[in-house]
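How a chain folds remains the central question behind the approach discussed here. In the encoding step, the backbone of a single protein was reduced to a row of integers, each denoting a local shape. We regard such an encoding as a compact summary of how the chain folds. The sequence in question and its structure tokens are set out directly beneath this paragraph:

___
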Amino acid sequence: MRTRADGTVAPELAEKVEATSPTVWTATLRPGVTFWKGGTVDAAAVVASMERARAENTLAAGLLKDVTVAATGDRTVTFTTKEPSHSLPSALSHYQLVIHNVASAPKEADLTGPYRITGFESDRRMVLERNDRWWGGTPGLARVEVQKVGDPQARAQIALSGQAEIVQDLPTDRAKELSAAPGMALVAKPAANTVTVYLNPSSAAAPALADQRVRQALSWGVDRQEVVDLATNGLSVPASSWLASNPAFPDAAKQGYVRFDKATAERLLDEAGWRVGADGKRAKAGTKLTLRLLTFGAEAATGEVLQAQWARLGIDVQVRNVESSLINQSIDKGDWDAVTQAWTTLGDTAKLMAAQIGPAGAANHGKYTDPRIAGLLAQAAGAPSEDQRTAAVYDLNKLMVELAPSIPVHPRVLATGVSKKVTGFVAHPLQYENIVQPTMTLG
């Protein structure tokens, strides 16, 4: 399956994927498909690929949890789930389940796509050449070279000098310069993820976060448009709720913190007992209202704007920009108050929301719980009608706003420089999807 730019999922390697019962999905493979090295892509090969992914990759194992995969014909693969799983096609579109030839050497890439890997240097470069065996026809480019450049300013210089036809992850502070560059277009699309400030209600250093009113006040006190303007140079959009960055759920942008409401934030903080003193700082029983915020990468700018905005409420916020591994270590140790992360919102929505607010959710860092969560998650995953499942997803999103386990701010920016010689480039809300399309050409 393939996730398209509008958030919908469509058959790709499969000719069709259809539900034959609430717990059974049948995929019919395209006829005549081969791997790069010529092996036949039949049902047995697909099952072998998925089972190896399940065994070797924890994310793939999560996508296939409680899913039995079996070859039921030369070209048919049957997926049987423990419970009704209406969103299985979204899971099958995830890049961690790309189909590869297990029969090839373990460290040798043998896939099915329009371009095959002919050169690879870890953390440096990859060379792709046209796959003449591709089932979809003749790809438009003969050769693609991918280079890894870690410094965003160096990437900006590469784009400005025309040394590459496509340059990803350009720094937003160079947006005006990049937009004005001749021969290149700056394509900026908000990603299908939401930069979110996760809050720890068990923090010994910031006990105020245990109070739902304080967490809600922090979110009402965020001027998201100002954050977008200052931290992303206007290249992103405000996210009023966690799900707002998912193009398949447009009404999520109408839920949650749809406006900056300083008065509500101040009222909630007052009700929680955190009063403003003569020094302009909030305190309760002689203790100042403070918290530590860890940010990562480009989110440093977002953290700095949030720091200034919350200071206007009388809250002292200490911001540190660190490696993502340090954020994870701090969460594991329980020694954290607030951290920024951006989890994907597009895919198997029920599972993605379970990760955010479910009792064992990988992103439920604060271990939040509510008696309504389990039923809504079950309905989002297994209700018989799409309307019922959609309603449950929106209800879960509203519940996250109410509980305020985290503060949605804005989607990450996918800023890409594209040479005007390139035709067929389509911006995609998933960072690793559709960078190079088989229909792309270079004039």
In short: The first strand starts at residue 2 and ends at 3. Residues 217 and 265 are 4 Å apart (CA to CA).
